[in-house]
Amino acid sequence: MKMNPRFGRIAPALALAAALAVAGCSQSGAPSPQGTSAPTAATSATAAGGIGKKEIKLAYVEWSSCVAATDVARAALEQKGYDVQTISVSAAAMYAAVADGDADATVCAWLPSTQANYYTRTRDKLDNLGPNLVGTKLGLVVPDYVTIDSIPQLADHAEQFQGRIVGIDPGAGEMGLTQQVVEQYQLPLKLIDGSGATMTAALKSAIDNHQWIVVTGWTPHWMWARFKLKYLADPKGIYGTAEDIDTLARRGLKQDSPVAYAVLDGFHWTPEQMQQVMDADREPDAKPYDVAKQWVQQHADVVAGWSH
């Protein structure tokens, strides 16, 4: 969703390097520090039956929407013969990874507003393949039994909200926007960072006890299928209007792995389709990647259209 001012160029690079080290792989797609060049397009295009370089790295952030989209993209690419590795990083590191060639692509770019700061810094080194999902929304969310309807009203009910807004990971673009909301609406509430999981756990606990809570929320998200919720109106328009989720690729992927590029370029689905995967991911003992593979198999006609 998502650059925290305290994240610079060094932090994303270190985060990515750590992720790659844990995964037991080397960085690819750009010259190494030792000066070793990546395979040329001509060389890689002759490999693996014309699909080009077989190893594809997808960077993503641990949000339920990103997990669903990344797993589905992975399953679709594997059907084409690619070996796909998914790398979980911070939002800042996600953009840096693709821009620097340490990852091949991401299907998790919330634009034009939520991740605008990251995109502005890296856009000259990226290929934006356009939206893979249209019509997102983000803002402050409360249970439907809460008797206020707009952000300015939070100021008069700070005590009922325990003086806090429950947020997600501190690097998320939505968190930066929410801090602007706190300041511009002069709210006597503190923005608490955490993760998507801790946010939804706090939300569930509050709803179970019929307590007031306000969280940073977005659509699509599985919580809308589980709970009765509502967005608070944002008269100042700080959260912006509906956004898209774009696919970003490193420069050169089209030449190195043309079939993978075509699949990623064609990848698009609806919020309802994403919600199907996200809902299934929440089932007891569900394995998200297995859910994604099953969805891809069951929607073969949709997936087939992505590579044409």
- Named at the architecture level, the CATH assignment of the largest domain is 3-Layer(aba) Sandwich
Count of DSSP H/I helices = 13
Largest sheet features: 5 strands, antiparallel
Q: What is the CATH homology-level superfamily of the largest domain?
A: Periplasmic binding protein-like II
What is the rounded Rg?
20 Å
Instruction: Provide mean pLDDT, rounded.
Output: 86
Beta-strand content: 15-25%
Which fold does the CATH topology of the largest domain refer to?
D-Maltodextrin-Binding Protein, domain 2
From the spread of the alpha carbons, the general shape counts as: globular
Helicity level, as a percent range? 25-40%
Under CATH at level 1, the class of the largest domain stands as Alpha Beta
Oligomer: single chain
Q: Could you give the distance between the termini?
A: 29 Å
Written as H for each helix and E for each strand, in order along the chain, the element string is HHEHEHEHEEHEHEHEEHHHHH
Any low-confidence stretches, pLDDT <50, length ≥5? 1-48
Overall number of structural domains:
2
Helix/strand/pairing class, anyone? alpha/beta
**Total count of strands:** 9
